[in-house]
Specification:
Length: about 230
C-alpha cells in the first residue's frame, strides 16, 4: 500500500485530544488508533477503530507507509513509543492545533503536540515529544526539555526553563528566567519563583519542595494503566 496512513498510538483520554488535532487539521490520512491494551483492540474511539497493537504496527510499517502521533500523556511511555517507532522506520508527527498560536521563530521537536488555545512565543525551544496543553503559554526564549508536559493554563515566563520529563501542573506559573530541573513535578496552581533541582515535587505559592519524585513507581503505575 503506497498511501500513507496515520494512527494515534494510544486510545485513552490524551489520545482523543491528539486525534482531535488531526481531525481539526483536516488530516484525511488519519484512519484510527493503535493501543497495546488488548481490551481496547476492536473497539471504536471518536468513531475511529482501535485497529491493533504495536506489534501489528511494526509489521504494517515493513510493508506500507505509516505515521503515528503519540497519544499517551505519560512522559516515559511517550519516549518508549517514539523510540520503538523510530526503530521501525515510522514517521512521528509533530502536531499543532489550528487554534494554537506558534511563532515562526519558535522551534518544536519531533513528536510534540500543541493543543487548542496554547501560545508559544518567539525563540522558544521545545524538545521532542513535549505536550503543550490547552491554553498553556510558553513565552519568548523559554527552553523545554524532551518529553516534558506543560499542563492546561500553565504559564512559563520569558527565558524560563523546564527540564526533560518534567511536569508543570494545571494553572501553574514559572516566573521569568527561573529554571526547573528534569524529572520534576510542579503541582497545580503553584507559582515557581526560585530554581528547582532535578527529581523533586514542588507545590504551593510560592512553590516549595515537598518530596523527591519516585520515578520508578510512577512508571510502573503508568505501564499498568496505559492511559
Amino acid at each position: 500500500m503506497n498511501t500513507r496512513r496515520v494512527f494515534v498510538y494510544g486510545a485513552g483520554g490524551h489520545g482523543k485530544v491528539v486525534a482531535d488535532i488531526l481531525i481539526c487539521n483536516g488530516d484525511t490520512e488519519f484512519v484510527g488508533f493503535v493501543d497495546d491494551r488488548d481490551e481496547l483492540v476492536g473497539t471504536t474511539v471518536m468513531g475511529f477503530p482501535v485497529v491493533a497493537n504495536g506489534e501489528w504496527l511494526r509489521e504494517e510499517a515493513a510493508n506500507s507507509i505509516v505515521a503515528i502521533a503519540i497519544g499517551t500523556g505519560h512522559s516515559r511511555i511517550r519516549q518508549m513509543i517514539a523510540a520503538r517507532c523510530s526503530r521501525w522506520g515510522i514517521e512521528i508527527l509533530t502536531l499543532i492545533h489550528p487554534a494554537a498560536i506558534v511563532s515562526r521563530a519558535a522551534r518544536l521537536g519531533p513528536g510534540t503536540a500543541v493543543m487548542a488555545g496554547a501560545i508559544i512565543n518567539p525563540e522558544a525551544t521545545v524538545g521532542a515529544g513535549v505536550i503543550i496543553n490547552s491554553a498553556a503559554v510558553v513565552e519568548h526564549d523559554v527552553e523545554i526539555g524532551d518529553y516534558a508536559h506543560v499542563a492546561p493554563n500553565a504559564v512559563m515566563g520569558g527565558g524560563s526553563r523546564l527540564g526533560a520529563f518534567s511536569h508543570l501542573g494545571l494553572g501553574a506559573a514559572v516566573i521569568q528566567r527561573i529554571a526547573i530541573g528534569s524529572h520534576t513535578i510542579v503541582g497545580a496552581g503553584a507559582v515557581v519563583v526560585e530554581d528547582l533541582p532535578d527529581g523533586v515535587v514542588a507545590m504551593g505559592v510560592p512553590a516549595r519542595i515537598t518530596r523527591r519524585n519516585g520515578q520508578e513507581g510512577s512508571l510502573r503505575n503508568a505501564l499498568a494503566s496505559r492511559s
